[in-house]
Write a sequence for this structure.
């Protein structure tokens, strides 16, 4: 394989060699006769010691120095790199060596770089022996330029320039200033593939990591050339052919030619496809520690199929995983194909060396600075002293990743020294911020200024329990709440949550909804979560399912605005006249959750779904009897490369046990805004009351589909392109109340982009969305955001 790039000039040393030869000749005439060296005197030293210099000399005290040896002395001393100038002289039997030391680098500054971090450039300089405190050699100037330019050429920045300047400093030191102009990355103008016959050029180019400029290359940057991308593209091309039977496929050459202006690249491949091969037979070799039939079930390529490297790798992984689940965690599989080039067939031989069955000695955790060991250990399914199981280890990793205070988990397996059948398992934990005592200040367009204080910790005192003591106040609501969850109330993993809250809501203050009243509500409840089963999803992640059951006492008081009774809508007045203002019920709640995400924070695959049914039973004769059914689901599906498809759906339905007239208006669903149909003002979609305010409805349906795309900025930032759809509907006959809108109208749609940012002060959400079918009376809001801060 041949790569053609811009040639880099080399440093010539002819002049330096010529000067040294002349210097040797001149110095050799310093004395004409040999003499015995009784004493060696070295003059001009500042940093190096005389003993160090003498150790490099080819002549020692007491030895006879011949005139012809002066060249040897100079060569040895110049070779050290310590000296700028050296002269030799004789005084009686004393050899006098006068030196001028080279300066040291007192300061090294790099400026103008952004594509390559300074620490990486500094590492390159250190590898060239250029760093603060090191001896400075002027001949290294060109070497500095070349070393740094190589780094930029490697990234495809062929217009990069490096200027090196020096400034004298005190005490024989100099400051080295490196100014870099990085230039732009060369873009790929054309990709050509020669020698292909089985597949057309367009098909092959689509397999590569590089491409010419297109609609989305400003995001993917696939049109930006770099050597890594070229190498990755070559691998992709090989895999494409190997997966289609072309075992003898070769890339004869890969040339990247730079245009004279150094702004564009032409990439040319020359390939030799060969012929496709089919599988003649599949053989398993090595000791069979499990039934051969079980291993054959892990192989999904059969005799007569076209050879596929991907299917062979899949078979190796499946067999390794199967053996790992049986305790053979160090199984090694080698592919030993027997290829018949005449018949274009191949016999696949998998040599399986299972090794000894391993047992787990210790399960340990590292870098968990805030979480107690026992909290992590209770999520581990792989027991100590038990046979090692790859599946149980991976499931344990998945369980740890789903903890709300864990950002990332890495698992490593280490054989125990001195044994052949024991391993230690370590889980390296990267914890997420779990705020404790805090003062909260935020702003949303729905609730306006929000502030509060409290203690909210997802990992209270490192126990894994969740404690929340919170006070929040905005124009819309005042909320005081206490929550405490023990995820392991029983050793079997049954969780228990206590909650108590006091809330006052003024809907008309900031939420664009039916006004003229306020609500005071008190809640006291308990909820149990019972693990049901655990399985593997089609995402190859572990699925955790839970059943929930609980009860909450609820006391609600509706206060009408007596001073401004005209602000109260006909719908609210009618409900109060029929049912009163004070309601006490017991909310009997059952639910189900299913979680197959790979992690809780910024998941990349899997789904999270919940379904809850709430039945409100009476406590007094004035109590209401009604029910609520709610479903929420969110799915993450990897697409091509780093792109992820995300879909979301919310459905809700409520009704009175004796008809829609018993369903309280203050339990209505609303749509619009964040977590609904973005681009429309929060809570503004759906039917409107007699005062032309959003009234909500007893039925909710909204959904969203989006693509999470790479941002190349920060791992704490997630950006999503989305399409939203949704609305709320009212089963109540709104016309008899003089409602401005008797029905919700069609489903509303919007399209936009959202950014989610994780900060130490809490999440920040920003969205830009455009309504697609706005109707008369709808209130749009293109820019929406929600932010918070801990002070």
């Amino acid at each position: 394989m041949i790569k053609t790039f811009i040639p880099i000039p080399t440093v010539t040393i002819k002049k330096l060699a010529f000067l040294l030869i002349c210097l040797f000749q001149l110095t050799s005439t310093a004395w004409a006769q040999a003499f015995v060296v009784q004493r060696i005197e070295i003059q001009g030293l500042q940093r190096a010691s005389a003993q160090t210099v003498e150790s490099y000399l080819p002549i020692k005290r007491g030895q006879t120095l011949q005139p012809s040896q002066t060249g040897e002395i100079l060569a040895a001393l110049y070779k050290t790199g310590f000296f700028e100038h050296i002269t030799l002289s004789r005084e009686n039997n004393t050899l006098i060596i006068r030196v001028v030391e080279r300066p040291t680098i007192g300061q090294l500054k790099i400026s103008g770089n952004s594509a390559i971090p300074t620490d990486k450039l500094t590492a390159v300089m250190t590898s060239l022996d250029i760093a603060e405190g090191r001896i400075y050699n002027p001949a290294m100037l060109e070497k500095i330029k070349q070393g740094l330019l190589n780094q930029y050429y490697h990234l495809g920045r062929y217009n990069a320039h490096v200027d090196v300047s020096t400034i004298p400093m005190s005490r024989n030191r100099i400051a080295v200033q490196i100014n870099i102009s990085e230039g732009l990355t060369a873009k790929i103008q054309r990709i050509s593939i020669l020698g292909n016959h089985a597949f057309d050029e367009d098909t092959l180019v689509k397999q590569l990591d590089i491409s010419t400029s297109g609609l989305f290359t400003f995001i993917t940057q696939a049109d930006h050339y770099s050597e890594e991308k070229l190498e990755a593209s070559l691998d992709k091309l090989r895999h494409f052919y190997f997966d289609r039977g072309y075992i003898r496929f070769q890339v004869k050459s890969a040339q990247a030619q730079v245009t004279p202006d150094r702004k564009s690249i032409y990439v040319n491949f020359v390939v030799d496809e060969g012929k496709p091969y089919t599988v003649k037979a599949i053989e398993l070799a090595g000791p069979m520690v499990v039934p051969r039939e079980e291993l054959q079930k892990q192989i999904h390529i059969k005799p007569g199929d076209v050879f596929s490297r991907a299917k062979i790798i899949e078979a190796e992984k499946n067999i390794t995983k199967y053996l790992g689940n049986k305790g053979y965690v160090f199984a090694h599989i080698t592919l030993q194909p027997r290829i018949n080039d005449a018949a274009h067939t191949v016999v696949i031989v998998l040599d399986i060396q299972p090794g000894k069955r391993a047992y787990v000695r210790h399960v340990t955790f590292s870098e968990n600075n805030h979480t107690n060991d026992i909290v992590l250990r209770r999520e581990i399914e792989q027991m100590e002293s038990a046979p090692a199981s790859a599946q149980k280890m991976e499931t344990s990793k998945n369980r740890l990743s789903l903890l709300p205070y864990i950002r990332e988990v890495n698992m490593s397996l280490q054989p125990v020294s001195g044994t052949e059948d024991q391993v230690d398992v370590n889980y390296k934990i990267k914890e997420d911020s779990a705020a404790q005592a805090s003062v909260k200040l935020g702003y949303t367009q729905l609730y306006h200024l929000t502030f509060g204080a409290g203690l909210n910790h997802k990992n209270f005192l490192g126990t894994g329990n969740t404690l929340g003591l919170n006070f929040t106040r905005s124009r819309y609501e005042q909320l005081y709440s206490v929550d405490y969850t023990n995820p392991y109330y029983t050793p079997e993993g049954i969780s228990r949550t206590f909650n108590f809250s006091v809330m006052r809501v003024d809907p008309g203050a900031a939420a664009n909804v039916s006004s003229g009243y306020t609500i005071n509500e008190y809640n006291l409840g308990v909820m149990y979560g019972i693990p049901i089963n655990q399985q593997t999803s089609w995402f190859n992640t572990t699925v955790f399912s839970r059943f929930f059951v609980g009860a909450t006492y609820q006391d609600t008081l509706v206060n009408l605005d007596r001073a401004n009774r005209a602000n109260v809508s006909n719908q609210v007045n009618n409900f109060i006249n029929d049912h009163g203002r004070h309601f006490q019920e017991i909310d009997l709640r059952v639910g189900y959750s299913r979680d197959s995400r790979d992690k809780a924070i910024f998941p990349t695959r899997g789904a999270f779904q919940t379904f809850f049914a709430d039945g409100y039973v009476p406590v007094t004769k004035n109590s209401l009897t009604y029910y609520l059914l709610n479903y929420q689901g969110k799915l993450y599906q990897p697409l091509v490369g780093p792109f992820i498809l995300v879909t979301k759906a919310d459905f809700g339905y409520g009704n009175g046990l004796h008809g829609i007239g018993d369903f309280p208006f203050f339990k209505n669903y609303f749509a619009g805004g964040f977590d609904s149909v973005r681009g429309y003002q929060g809570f503004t979609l759906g039917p409107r009351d007699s005062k032309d305010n959003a009234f909500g409805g007893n039925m909710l349906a909204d959904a969203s589909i989006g693509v999470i795309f790479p941002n190349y900025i920060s791992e704490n930032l997630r950006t999503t392109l989305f399409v939203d759809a949704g609305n709320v509907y009212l089963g109540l006959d709104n016309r008899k109340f003089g409602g401005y809108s008797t029905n919700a109208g069609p489903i509303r749609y919007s399209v936009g982009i959202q950014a989610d940012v994780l900060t130490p002060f809490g999440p920040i959400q920003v969205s830009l969305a455009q309504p697609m079918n706005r109707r008369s009376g709808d209130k749009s809001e293109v820019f929406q955001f929600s932010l918070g801060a801990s002070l």
Summary: Residues 183 and 189 are 18 Å apart (CA to CA). Confidence is low (pLDDT under 50) at residues 1-18, 23-30.
